[in-house]
Every structure is written in structure tokens, then in C-alpha cells.
Amino acid sequence: MPATDFFDRKNPVVYEGTESRDPLAFRFYDKDRKVMGKRMEDHLRFSVAYWHSFTWPGGDPFGGETFNRPWMHGGDALELAKQKAEVAFEMFRLLDVPFFAFHDVDVAPEGASLQESNDNLKVITDIFAEKMESAKVRLLWGTANLFSNRRYMAGAATNPDPDVFTYAVGQVKAAIDATHRLGGANYVCWGGREGYETLLNTDLKREIDQLGRFMSMLVDYKHKIGFSGPILIEPKPKEPTKHQYDYDVATVYAFLQKYDLTKDVKLNIEQNHAILAGHSFEHEVKLAFANDIFGSLDINRGDDLLGWDTDQFAMDVKEMALVFHEMLKAGGFTTGGLNFDAKIRRQSIDPDDLLIAHVASMDACARGLLAAEAMLADKALTGPLEARYAGWDKAENKAMLGGEMTLEQIADKALSLSPQPRSGRQEMLEGVVNRYV
């Protein structure tokens, strides 16, 4: 099947303005519109996730596939992967996105050996490289799937079997080599099974040390081959394991400090994972910026009524506005972007549903970005925040935090004070946000 026959649409999706009712037209995402001096496309840096868009068959724990994609059945696995690549690049063209991202086994079939798997990956990498010569799309990041195959049921880098650790190293080397060859801006490590089900059979310290060594070797290899982008770790608290070693931003930051990795390793943060860890998306983004480890975002959402990773397309404008407010304050992306680690629902079986989902979510993100820009211009949130902490701008108070005063001196100063509590004005600020979204 020619790639151009999979989607009904033949022309790229374009911006038509807020009056448009076409589900395959952008109403807010105007890629060339300037936001705080930079094009909207350059702020948002959208990326299509290869796995959910072209590899997930629409199944769930209670039912089989619903999509019946032509490249998922029959024939030689490598030839089907080539067909899938044709459809993928056609979709990148139709959405006019600047980036895509992939796992190794999503783009190329696993072979009977690591060598055969690596050879398959090289074949598809060659195809990608050829297509990228004439396409707009570039690679936001690549990664290795170290969680699906049964060999990784007890982890990859943290596995009690050194042979599994060794195999994982070989798989990651091939994946970062492919990412580097394609000019990837980042390389991601997602420890899908780097955790434990029970402490009864787990040497926790040993496993974390193994993970530290694994990451250190990867950083060394990155420098050896001249890969300029950061290595990204994607925090996730649970599912599939009961407790994962990359639980949340704070946990990963402690890990990076322990193994001296903060310079080369940053974070790829996902909304759904933040919620599963008991945090807001905004919290995780803000904490990553506060600790200088922010890298990129997987842009999706979970279902408030379900306690697991549903990977739905991001549609919450208010949530996006608050995240982008933090990002714009901090300068936004450098090598990162907004990767759609999201899948359409298993009832959305029409090919164009893939396009519609991305278009709707891109519009939601664009609305959030514009709201964030307006809030910053009006100092709607930054003004009250500055006023709340204004006392710390006085020289005598700066001295307390700057090491110029001892505990005794500060205690003596306290004897002449009678501080009174001041309102945090939370409800007022929540109302302010609502005026912009």
C-alpha cells in the first residue's frame, strides 16, 4: 500500500484561525506567529512519537487490537517496517511537525540475535536518513526499548543477571549510534522495569549502583562519538514495577548527584508520570528548572478517574498554560521539545483520527502558550509572587542567606521583631489564571 493511500488528506494541515470548524485545521497553532520574540514552532518544537502512532495496535488488557494497520500483519517483518516508515514520514509531512522520536524496536523488528536486531535497525536508519534529506522533520530523540522483551522482566541495567546487563549495553549502543547518525537532539533512557516488585528478592543498593555505572558508561560513550545533545532520563513512579528507581524529578536528581551525572544527564518529564507520582505536571517542570536538569517534555495526559498510564492526548489548556508560564520564565527549550507520547483511543479506528488527535492537541498547547505569554506580559502571576518575597530583597535580609550573619546575630535581630501572617491569596490567583484560559 503506498503511504499516500493511508490517509484521506493529501495537503499539509494549515492554520485557518479561530473561526475554522475543520478538525484538520489549526485554530491557534500558527507556527510563524511570534511569541516573546520567537516563532511559535520554535517554542513548542512538536514531535510525533513513532511507537504510539504507528506501532500500538489498539489493544488493552481486556481486548485485542482494533486498528488493523496494514504494516502490522503478514509478510516479512523488515519489509513491513519499511512500509511503516513510508506512512510515518507521510504523516510527519501532513502535520508539518519539526520532529519525531522513536524506540529501536518500534522502527525495526527484533531479530533472533542482537546482531540481527542491530542490522535491522541499520537498514531502517538508512531509510530514515535518506528521507530526512528532503523532509522537514528532524529527530528529537531516539531510545532503546529495554522493557518489552521477556529478558528484561527483572530490569535491564538493574538486572540480577550480568548477561542481561551486557545485552542491554549492546542494545543501547546500537540505539544511540542510530540516533547520532540521524542528528538526534537528545538520547532518552526510560527505565521501564528498572525497579522492583518486592524487596524480598531485591538488593536495592546493588541495583542502583548498577544503574549508576550503566549511565556513566553511556555518558562516556556519548562524548567518545561526539554526540552533543544531553542524555535524558524519564521519571516514572510505578507501572509496570511497584516502585521504580526513577520515581520522580526529586528522586532522579538525587541519583544524578550521587553518580556525578548532572552535567550530562537531564530529564524528560511526562504529565501522566507526574500525576502517578502524586505531583502536578507544573511541579515537576518547575523542580527540574530549579535544579538545572530540565531537558524535554512528553506531552500527554492521564485520566483523572484511572490510576494508571493512559497516555491520552494533552487537551487541558489551563494545565498547559501553567507549564508554559514556567518554561517561558526559564527561557524555554534548548534541545528538548514537546513529544506526543500519546495514543488515540482504541475506538478511534479511522486513519485520519491520528491526524485529528495531533492537530487538536497542538492547538491546546498553542492556546496554553499564548495564555502564558499574556500572563507574563501583564505580570499576572509574577507580580504577586515578587511582592510576596519582596522582603528578601532588602540588604539586611540578603545578608542572612549570604553567609554574612551568624545564627547568634540573626537570633538577636529576632528579639525586636513581631511578624504577623499575611494572606497567600490563593483563590485570587486561581481566579486570575482563569481569566487567561
Automatic annotation (TrEMBL):
Quaternary structure per UniProt?
Homotetramer.
Q: Which gene encodes it?
A: xylA
**Entry cofactors:** Mg(2+)
Family from the record: Belongs to the xylose isomerase family.
User: Can you state which reaction this protein catalyses?
Assistant: alpha-D-xylose = alpha-D-xylulofuranose
Q: Which residues bind Mg(2+) 1?
A: E234, E270, D298, D341
The record's remark on the cofactor is:
Binds 2 magnesium ions per subunit.
Under PANTHER family, the record lists: PTHR48408, XYLOSE ISOMERASE (PTHR48408:SF1)
Please state what the protein is called. Xylose isomerase
- UniProt-annotated catalytic positions: H103, D106
Where it sits in the cell: the answer is: Cytoplasm
